[in-house]
Design brief:
alpha/beta, TIM Barrel, 8-stranded parallel barrel
């Protein structure tokens, strides 16, 4: 049975603010738990006025405190932006507060623009090149501390915190395979090398103490509504975010939907956006079920990490409620 999970960016809507976004995130997580989603992840981004999840570990704690059973984690923490010891201490603290519920997904991308990278990394602009080494250092802090060990993560040492590799390229797939770690691919916005990365990860996977067989989680945009037309309308909020990116701007506060993307985008811009949003299921439940089923058949994903960015909170909740029904029908072979 394919598991379904949720990726949230704490979207800041036009006319709203970060406080409202965090309240919506917490509300969504509570519903997600009741609807049977496996995990609820938050993604690190910086200097983007439409995304509120920059202090990812803090927001994970906010969500974990409001829930009881659902796994909560990062999708991901951009490791080159942080000292590995700090990440280990943060997630060690989260695991101590919420035992058995914390995931740590890490990636090497900065999650921002070049100027903000320099602000984050200060005098170390090449930190991303050391991602494999920093990852090994991070993982070492979760092992039981040895006698005489000079530097320990407190808390963190000896805690069982699952580490995931996140990526959108074959290089990240190769690293996850060699380390025997679960792999999450960002197909919800960068699907171009998806199949190549999956083939490489599965063919080169080396079993480890953490994982005996390859395990793949794939990002997918989902906009479900009671009708196809309403789902397509709600989906235009996310399309407008991507429109900002192809125009060279960072994502602005999430805009309200428009009746048709043709109102705000040229044919050329729509052609550029479409491949970026290839991994999307948009429509009424029957349409979403058909598109998710096709995606699973093509990829063999072990888990779907669904993300929904809609301007209206009620529409967001309804989308994930309908997707939970789709999940149950897929599990039942209906």
């Amino acid at each position: 049975m394919t598991a379904f999970s949720i990726l949230d960016l704490a979207p800041i809507r036009q006319g709203g603010d970060a406080a409202a976004a965090f309240g919506h995130t917490r509300e969504l997580a509570r519903h997600a738990e009741a609807w049977g989603y496996r995990r609820f992840w938050l993604a690190e981004h910086h200097n983007m006025t439409g995304i509120g999840s920059s202090a990812t570990a803090v927001l994970i704690g906010h969500v974990a405190e409001a829930t009881e059973t659902i796994r909560v984690g990062s999708g991901g923490v951009m490791l080159p932006n942080h000292a590995p010891l700090v990440v280990a201490e943060q997630f060690g603290t989260l695991e101590a507060l919420h035992p058995g519920r914390i995931d740590l997904g890490v990636g090497r991308a900065p999650g921002t623009d070049g100027r903000t990278v320099r602000a984050l990394r200060r005098q170390d602009p090449d930190a991303a090149e050391r991602f494999p080494q920093d990852l090994e250092e991070l993982r070492s802090y979760f092992r039981p501390a040895e006698r005489g060990q000079a530097v320990q993560a407190v808390p963190g040492a000896g805690l069982d915190i699952p580490v995931w590799i996140l990526g959108s390229s074959p290089s990240s797939a190769d690293l996850a395979a060699r380390l025997g770690l679960p792999y999450a691919f960002a197909s919800h916005f960068a699907p171009y090398q998806l199949m190549e990365a999956l083939d490489l990860y599965r063919s080169r996977f080396e079993p480890s103490e953490h994982l005996g067989r390859p395990y793949v989680m794939l990002g997918m945009n989902v906009a479900a509504a009671d009708t196809d037309a309403e789902a397509r309308r709600q989906f235009t909020s996310l399309q407008q975010q991507f429109l900002s990116m192809v125009r060279g701007r960072t994502p602005r506060p999430l805009p309200p939907p428009v009746a048709d993307l043709e109102e705000v985008a040229t044919p050329g811009e729509r052609e550029r956006i479409a491949p970026m949003l290839w991994a999307s299921a948009v429509g009424a439940p029957e349409t979403v079920e058909r598109e998710v089923r096709g995606f699973l058949e093509r990829t063999g994903a072990d888990e779907i990490m669904a993300t929904t960015q809609m301007y209206e909170q009620a529409a967001t909740l309804r989308s994930f409620e309908l997707l939970a029904g789709v999940r149950e029908r897929l599990a039942g072979g209906v």
